[in-house]
Amino acid sequence: MTTTTSVPTYPPLRSFDRLFIGGAWVPPATTRVIGSIAAGTGLELARVPEATEADVDAAVSAAREAFDRGPWPRTTAAERISALRRVREAIAERLDDMCVAFSAEIGAPLGVSRAFHESALNLWDDNIRLLETFAFEEERLVGDATVRLVREPVGVVGIILPWNGPVTTASLKMAPALAAGCPVIVKPAPEGPVSMMLLAEALEAADLPPGVVSVLPAGREVGEHLVRHAGVDKISFTGSTAAGKRVMALCADRVARVTLELGGKSAGIVLDDLALDDFLSTLVQAGIGHTGQVCAALTRLVVPRRRQAEIADAVVGMLDGLTVGDPFAEGTDLGPLAAERQRDRVEGYVRIGQAEGARLACGGRRPAHLDRGWYYEPTLFTDVTGAMRIAREEVFGPVLCIQPFDTVEEAISIANDSDYGLSGAVFASDTVLAERVARSVRTGQITVNGWGLCLTQPAGGFKQSGLGREGGPEGIGEHLETKIISGL
Fold this sequence. Notes:
This protein has 2 domains: 2-262 and 465-485, 3-Layer(aba) Sandwich (Aldehyde Dehydrogenase, Chain A, domain 1), CATH 3.40.605.10; 266-455, Aldehyde Dehydrogenase, Chain A, domain 2, CATH 3.40.309.10. 38% of the residues lie in helices and 21% in strands. The protein has helices at 53-68, 77-93, 95-106, 110-131, 166-180, 194-205, 220-228, 241-254, 280-288, 308-320, 340-356, 389-392, 408-416, 431-440, 472-477, and strands at residues 2-3, 19-21, 24-26, 33-37, 44-49, 137-142, 145-153, 157-160, 184-187, 213-215, 234-238, 257-261, 266-270, 298-304, 323-324, 359-362, 379-382, 399-405, 420-421, 424-427, 447-448, 462-463, 466-467, 480-485. A 7-stranded mixed β-sheet has the order 16-17-18-14-13-20-21, sandwiched between helices. A 6-stranded mixed β-sheet has the order 10-9-8-11-12-23, sandwiched between helices. Helix 3 packs across helix 4 (110-131), helix 3 runs antiparallel to helix 6 and helix 4 (110-131) runs parallel beside helix 5. It comes from Pseudonocardia ailaonensis.
């Protein structure tokens, strides 16, 4: 493994002193601030206001006015298409600044950051395209009578984001909600707030009607206030399964609509004598890309027992060849983890894996020459069993586990022996067999001889990986209520 040794000199980030509430920049309710911390140095880069419950109340009041009496839910699809195009173009104009902020705050190499933000643009493009033909009304024949089925916006939507891709995840959630005619209140995580404030500037430039959008960086307590708020009709949450259970319980108290995209422990299954060059790079990058901080990462490598040593040696060789270091340096493959507590979490799981009897094949420590920031070496465990915590729990770091199997049915069983079901992949020269295995794995998306979370199609999880779907027409549908009008 290669490491860069110089202390990175990060570009300055801009501080903000106001919150974006109801489409306008307003003074926050308190003087509390969130420090934007560089993942690669641990030093503060900028400051933004920390939203409080009072700011949430103001945002909900503005959103309720927009929904109950304002024009947005009553606009035509063509009018919303025009508005979404303005948002998309305003984001594109700020794309470079968003990439820099994301790389500085969260530690993603610039190439990874650009891929994330280009995906955000694709999500706005896709919802614009979907709105051109989406059926908000249709007639159905019931016996000799005709009824009219009407799909109406669900109401005010509270959106709670993780830190590992805030602008992309915001776009995944905001674009369909706005396409459906819903005002939105977005609560980003306190880690990495600057890129979201830049998104707020793009939303201001798009000139949406008053009250339609608010952006409120804050911590968990403020998020819970948003979830509990009687003025919010639906919550869309992405984050850990533990936090998602809490959100779901709070929504249940008032039967609020909820969409949850939660954790994952996805399996990459290698079925047969496929040459290493045909799967190795994809399999490894799907596991440790963005330093493993991706919910859909393939962190369990399910491989034939007779090939475990061969594949493990090849994975170690590939991991050792990666460059870990400054996210702004040319050639960096892996940046730091996003926060000190995240690195502590990864270290804890590595200790657990060793105590449980898994064999540490490589990594498992902080890079010796990177003594500032939250860096960790890409790590591989072999001889992992399904009973081990490192095979069952989401680490959210650059830690891969190899689980060997003897038969195809055992491989399917290993993949399904999980509380999660978000993503997956099957690698095989026999595509008929690969499809059979893909159909047998209980997961929201799975790829044959490749990997990728397609966000423009309905993405979501089985089991404790979540509820509902995001992306595609189903994503817009999650923000609509269905009404039947008869007797016309």
